[in-house]
Here is the input.
Amino acid sequence: MPLKAREGREHTRDRAHEIGVERLLVLFERDVARITGVDNSGIPELDDLRDRRKNLRNHRLPHLAATYRGEVVGYAYVVHFRKRPAYRYAAKHSIYVHHEHLGRGVGRQLLQELIDACAAAGFRQMIGYIDADNTASLAIHDKFGFERVGLLRGVAYRYGRWADSVMVQRSVGAGSTEPPPPAASFGR
Here is the structure.
């Protein structure tokens, strides 16, 4: 599915399970260290990424990739917010965008796709943790109706200083306005 970027470039959104994990790992290698300010020890190994994707697929959790000219330029997925059954309607999301494709609509499109996929999957709440210095991500989440519900002070150490994370939340589908469907209709 094409994603129209602001500058006329066309990105393609694919189901991440159709993308080789090697191509996804390139995104992590390029950008996770740049974002977190740590060495490559924080980047997942190929087998870890395979296991993560297998888990996402087995639990039918949304995970998407955006490509441009055959290169993965964005990756987004959700996991259950907590493992206990009472939390099964809440998803925690993550989005990564290649630094050369920031500001081109990739993150915005992936976030919209995740919201739609979470609603279709029966989730009622989406939660995210965003670096407090990442004003672009905070602004996009604001535009998509996420509320800033918490500030976690000094939870990450990078670039020689402690960094804060902002917790955001948004209702999807019916949210908390009505009870969930019977347990049998929403699997884990």
